[in-house]
Specification:
The protein is an alpha+beta fold. It is built from three helices and six strands.
Amino acid sequence: MTLYIDPPTWPGHGRLWSHLVSDVSYDELHAFAALIGVPPRAFDRDHYDIPSHRYADVVRAGAVETGSKDLVRRLTEAGLRRRKHRPRL
């Protein structure tokens, strides 16, 4: 089981966030998130949002640190990338 996390550089709700992903399956991602106590509501399309104060815990639990571009590349190559749908104008 290999999960990946990018640095907590994404602002939102008054804090910084990381993204936790799997390049194998959503089942693997959900199982890992449950194991480390990440609530299901933190799942967003293809990743879990992880607040900066949990970053070190997630890495200690086994997630591999990687950059944001590498994380997106891994998701895309695995066919797991789910983009936001933009309304047509």
